[in-house]
Specification:
It is a single-pass membrane protein. This protein is α+β, with helices and mostly antiparallel strands. The protein is built from 12 helices and 20 strands.
């Protein structure tokens, strides 16, 4: 009997410890996931630690006059116009409700062009008990086809305190007068456990932004600069991914097919450049997003430039972004309508006459897994269709202009020009040469007046 009892007690004890261990494990995982809300004490101390990190960091910012502003997507989402105007500096007990989010990090941007690297910053950070990691990368402003070796510049700083982080992203002004930051790439020798690198919003991709207007405000008792239009900034952030032009491949291309430097080619590129800048201005005033399409996209992708014998500038626009005042806006800008083919419901394309260079705007339609744009032959009413795999849009720079291209540029160009897109083709027929062209019937004669307009 005594023996049975002992076994029973022992089993019960083992069972109880197992449950306890499981509970501990569960609790630990919750805390690791940042859900320490469950224990109110841990939550407070986590927020307190974060606030102290921010205070230390902003102390450094003040001391070294660092041109930083808040770009943290989680914090900016918590702001409302009221919170910014109210400036809760009156609060005696600062409580961290905007700058401390559900995450273990807060992100700031630093204007690289207005800042001079000062090693004393590192010492001052260490004195305040902040650990610091610096990530460098190539300066793309110095990379060109003539010089592929660029010097390295600081791209990211991570200040760590109590396993919490301030992530500082260094923004540089590029020649198209926009702000750019590089991706966060760790070198082999770097500590991969220093930060939750996969979670950082400003780590995975290079990104580009227009320069935001900033205002000084007080959040959680701390003075910080934020984009004045923070909701606009968040919107811009969501489609800010940036692709660098492929200088290395472009250089290899020009070694096979030397660049045309005749006066004619140089002249065409200058005209195409100014047409591209003008079109971008007109469309951005209207708030219509667009991307480089067809030959203009191929020129960027293959040779970081405009193909001199292409004779036009090609842009793509989603049909959902079509506005009736597009034509009028281009005409006001000095670009008369040359032709209009198709209609909003089907195969719309607009063509404007620039200074010896034509501007073609193709409207793109959604069709399940693919997207397409249409073509129309004026004399016969025949319709064509050019089909592409779905894509998202990324920013890049062409001819000193910040402009969008399909992020999956290789797939887009291959769909349009086939696997041999890397070989120049000078004789081109839009009805038969494209790799992705399909016959698409004929416009009914009664619609011709509407869908075939040539000026
Ligand atoms: C903020 O930016 C958005 C565009 O992203 C714009 O629609 C809005 O009018 C801007 N707000 C102000 C106050 O400028």
């Amino acid at each position: 009997m005594a023996r049975v009892n002992r076994t029973l007690v022992l089993s019960l004890l083992i069972a109880a410890s197992c449950i306890f261990l499981l509970f501990q494990l569960f609790n630990h995982r919750q805390t690791k996931n940042g859900l320490s809300v469950l224990s109110s004490k841990g939550y407070l101390s986590g927020k307190e630690a974060h606030w102290h990190l921010l205070k230390k960091f902003l102390g450094l910012v003040h001391k070294f006059k660092l041109p930083v502003f808040l770009v943290d997507t989680a914090s900016l989402k918590l702001l409302s116009q009221d919170a910014v105007l109210y400036r809760d500096s009156q609060l005696k007990e600062p409580h961290c409700s905007f700058l401390c989010t559900h995450r273990d990090f807060t992100t700031f941007a630093l204007y690289g062009n207005l800042w001079k690297y000062d090693a004393a910053l590192l010492e001052a950070a260490a004195e305040r008990g902040l650990e610091l990691m610096e990530i460098h990368g190539k300066d793309p402003r110095l990379v060109s086809m003539d010089d592929l070796t660029a010097k390295e510049i600081p791209l990211h700083f991570l200040f760590r305190f109590n396993s919490r982080l301030v992530h500082v992203v260094v923004l540089y002004e590029r020649s198209g007068k926009y702000l750019w930051h590089g991706p966060l790439r760790l070198k082999a020798s770097m500590d991969r456990t220093f930060a939750p690198f996969g979670k950082l919003d400003y780590g995975r991709h290079a990104r580009a932004y227009d320069r935001p207007e900033l205002i000084l405000t007080t959040l959680d008792g701390l003075d910080v600069r934020i984009p004045k239009n923070f909701s606009g900034f968040l919107r811009e952030f969501s489609s800010s991914r940036f692709l660098e032009c492929r200088s290395r491949e472009a250089k290899a291309f020009f070694q096979l097919y030397p660049e045309d430097t005749s006066a004619e080619a140089v002249d065409f590129r200058m005209r195409a450049k100014s047409l591209l800048h003008l079109a971008s201005k007109v469309l951005s005033v209207l708030g219509v997003p667009f991307w480089l399409s067809s030959g203009t996209c191929l020129g960027w992708y293959r040779q970081c430039s405009i193909i001199p014998y292409s004779k036009d500038v090609d842009l793509g626009i989603w049909i959902k972004d079509y506005r009736h005042d597009i034509t009028q806006a281009f005409q006001k800008a000095g670009l008369p309508l040359k032709h209009k083919f198709g209609k909003v419901e089907d195969s719309l394309e607009l063509s404007f006459q620039g200074n010896d260079v034509k501007l073609d705007i193709f409207f793109f339609y959604d069709d399940g897994d693919v997207v397409w744009n249409g073509g129309t032959q004026a004399k016969s009413g025949r319709k064509f269709k050019y089909v592409f795999p779905r894509f998202s849009l990324c920013w890049t720079e062409l001819m000193e202009l910040k402009v969008q291209v399909p992020c999956e540029t290789g797939d887009y160009v291959t769909a349009n020009y086939g696997p041999n897109w890397n070989v120049p083709v000078k004789t081109w027929d839009w009805k038969s040469s494209p790799f992705n062209v399909q016959e698409n019937g004929v416009w009914p004669v009664r619609e011709w007046d509407d869908v075939i307009q040539v000026y």
